[in-house]
Design brief:
The chain has 511 residues and is of the alpha+beta class. It is 49% helix and 15% strand. Strands 1, 6, 9, 10 and 12 form a 5-stranded antiparallel beta sheet that branches. Strands 2-3-11-7-8 form a 5-stranded antiparallel beta sheet, with no helix packed on it. A two-stranded antiparallel ribbon has the order 4-5. The longest helix is centred in the last third of the chain and has 35 residues. The radius of gyration is 32 Å and the shape is elongated.
Length: 511
C-alpha cells in the first residue's frame, strides 16, 4: 500500500512535466538535431492528414476555408567552430504520402539513396549533395523541395517565410534534410503551422470533435434517466447504485472536457494542456472505477455477500495499478504528440494496460462463475436471472473487444504509411461506444426502483428459497410426521442451517 501511495505522489509530478509541453498543429522545433539515415541527415518536421481547401460556391476563384502549411522563422544553426566554410543546401522536403516514391533514387538498380551520389550526378538526374526527387505524376508542382545554404562565416541560415496551399486531400510529410557530412551538430529551430479548412485540428482528430459532442449528449440522456430514477427511489438506493452514479457523472465530465479540448485546439492551433490533462484523468478514473464495479458485482458484493472481506486490498491494489498504467499511456498519447502517425512509445505503454485488462477479465469471469453457482444453490431465482443477463452482456462485450483488437492490429499493420488516416478516428471512438453500451446495460439491470431491495444482500434465512408461487406449487407437502420423528427432524435443519451459514462466512473470508 505504501508503494501505491508513493506512485500517486509521483503522478502529479509527471503531470507537471507534461504541462510544460506545448503541442499543437503549430509544430515547434527547439534545437532538434539531425539524425543520420543512410547517406542523408534528417529531422522529421511533422506528419498530418490535411483536407483540401474548400471552394466558395459563390465565387469559384476563391476559397472559404484555406488549407496550408506555413513556414515561420525556420532556422538552421551550426557551432561556431564549424562556421568556416560554405555548405551545401539544407532542404525542406514536403510531399503527400502517395508521392513517397518520388523521393530518393538509385543508380543502375543499386541501393536506394536520398542524397544524390556521384554516379547519379554523372547520369545528370540530380545535383551531387542535394536531395533526389522527381515531379509527381498525380499532382503538378509537387513535391515541394526548397532550402538554404550557409555562407562561409555564417552560424545561422534561415528559410524564407512561405505558405504552401494544399489543394489535394492527403497525408503530408515534412522532412528537413542535408547531405553535407561536414555539418556536424546541426540543429533546427522555429515552427511550421498546419491548417485544415475548418480549423487547426489535424485531419485524424477532426472527426473526434463532433463525436465527443454526440457522446456528451448521449451521456446527458442516460444521466437524465438514471438521476430521475435515483431521485424517485432515493430511500431504496443500494451502495452499488451509488457507484454507478459516480461512473455516469465521470463519463459526462470526460466527454464534455474532450469536446472542449478539441474545440479549443481547433480554434487556436494550441492544445490546451490543462483541459487535456483533466479529460485524460477523468477518463482514466472512469475506466478504473468501471472495472472495479464490474469486479465487485461479479463477486456478489451487496447480493450474496455484504463485504469483500480480505479481497478489498487486492481489488484496490489492482485498480490503483491499472489507473497509473492507463494514466501514463493516455498522457503520452494525447498530450505528448500531435502528428498523425502512430507513436512507437505507445506500443510499450499499451502492454502493461493490456495485461492488467486481461487479469481483470479473468478475475471477473472466475468470480461470476462462483456467484452464479452460489445463487443457483440457494435458489435465489430473481438474482440468478439478473446475473445471467449481466454475464451474457459481459461475454458479448469481451468477444467484441477481442475481435476489434484483432482488427485494430490488422489495420495498423497494413497502414504503414498512415494512408487510412481519414478512418483512424473510428478506432478510439469504438472503445468509447462499447464502454457506453456496457454502462447502459448495467443501468437497465440495476436501475433504482421500489424493488431494489430484491437485489440486496439479506441475512434473512428465507432468502435461501425462491418465493415465486409458480415454483412453490411444485413442492409436494409430506405427511405429518410423528412427534419423535418431528423433534429429530427439527434439530437437523437448524444444525444444517447454521453449518451452511458458517460455511458461507468461511467461503467469503477465503475468497
Amino acid at each position: 500500500m505504501l508503494k501505491l501511495l508513493n506512485s500517486f505522489f509521483f503522478l502529479p509530478l509527471l503531470c507537471f512535466l507534461f504541462a510544460s509541453i506545448s503541442e499543437a498543429s503549430v509544430h515547434e522545433y527547439n534545437g532538434v538535431k539531425f539524425v543520420s539515415k543512410g547517406n542523408a541527415f534528417v529531422v522529421h518536421g511533422g506528419s498530418e492528414g490535411i483536407y483540401s481547401s474548400l471552394a466558395d460556391p459563390q465565387n469559384l476563384t476563391s476559397t472559404i476555408g484555406d488549407s496550408y502549411i506555413r513556414f515561420e522563422k525556420v532556422t538552421f544553426r551550426r557551432p561556431k567552430e564549424s562556421a568556416n566554410f560554405s555548405s551545401k543546401r539544407i532542404q525542406a522536403v514536403l510531399f503527400e504520402v502517395e508521392d513517397r516514391e518520388t523521393i530518393g533514387g538509385s543508380a543502375y538498380g543499386g541501393q536506394r539513396a536520398v542524397c544524390c551520389t556521384v554516379d547519379l550526378a554523372k547520369l545528370g538526374v540530380c545535383l551531387e549533395g542535394e536531395v533526389i526527387y522527381r515531379p509527381s505524376a498525380a499532382t503538378p508542382n509537387w513535391p515541394k523541395v526548397f532550402g538554404v545554404a550557409f555562407k562561409e562565416d555564417d552560424e545561422v541560415a534561415t528559410l524564407r517565410y512561405r505558405s504552401i496551399k494544399v489543394t489535394k486531400t492527403g497525408m503530408y510529410n515534412l522532412y528537413f534534410i542535408h547531405c553535407d557530412a561536414n555539418l556536424k551538430d546541426l540543429t533546427v529551430e522555429g515552427k511550421t503551422v498546419w491548417k485544415n479548412p475548418t480549423g487547426y485540428l489535424p485531419g485524424r482528430m477532426a472527426p473526434l470533435m463532433n463525436f465527443y459532442m454526440f457522446m456528451s449528449l448521449a451521456f446527458v440522456v442516460i444521466g437524465i434517466f438514471w438521476f430521475s430514477q435515483y431521485a424517485r427511489f432515493w430511500k431504496d438506493v443500494l451502495p452499488l447504485q451509488n457507484c454507478i452514479t459516480l461512473v455516469i457523472t465521470l463519463g459526462m465530465l470526460e466527454m464534455a472536457l474532450w469536446y472542449f479540448d478539441y474545440a479549443e485546439f481547433n480554434e487556436n492551433g494550441i492544445r490546451p494542456v490543462g483541459i487535456t490533462m483533466w479529460a485524460v484523468t477523468f477518463g482514466t478514473i472512469k475506466r478504473t472505477v468501471s472495472r472495479i464495479i464490474i469486479l465487485m458485482v461479479s463477486m456478489g458484493y451487496g447480493v450474496v455477500r455484504p463485504t469483500l472481506g480480505g479481497l478489498t486490498s487486492k481489488v484496490i491494489m489492482l485498480g490503483g495499478t491499472f489507473f497509473l498504467a492507463s494514466e501514463v499511456l493516455e498522457l503520452v498519447e494525447n498530450v505528448g504528440a500531435v502528428s498523425d502517425h502512430w507513436g512507437k512509445a505507445r506500443l510499450f505503454l499499451v502492454l502493461p494496460v493490456a495485461i492488467l485488462d486481461a487479469f481483470f477479465i479473468l478475475w471477473i469471469f472466475t468470480s461470476l462463475s462462483a456467484t452464479l453457482n452460489k445463487l443457483q444453490a440457494r435458489r435465489m431465482m430473481v438474482k440468478l436471472d439478473i446475473y445471467r443477463k449481466f454475464t451474457n452482456a459481459l461475454a458479448v462485450a469481451v468477444i467484441v473487444s477481442v475481435g476489434w483488437t484483432c482488427y485494430e492490429l490488422y489495420f495498423k499493420s497494413k497502414d504503414v504509411y498512415n494512408e487510412q488516416w481519414q478512418n483512424a478516428w473510428i478506432i478510439p471512438a469504438f472503445w468509447q461506444v462499447l464502454s457506453f453500451s456496457m454502462l447502459c446495460v448495467i443501468c437497465v439491470l440495476w436501475a433504482p426502483s421500489q424493488n431494489s431491495s430484491r437485489y440486496a444482500h439479506s441475512d434473512d434465512g428465507n432468502e435461501d428459497f425462491d418465493k415465486d408461487e409458480t415454483n412453490l406449487t411444485l413442492i409436494k407437502p409430506s405427511p405429518t410426521p410423528s412427534k419423535d420423528f418431528r423433534s429429530a427432524a427439527e434439530a437437523r435443519p437448524v444444525q444444517g442451517s447454521n453449518g451452511a451459514s458458517n460455511g458461507d462466512l468461511e467461503e467469503d473470508k477465503t475468497e
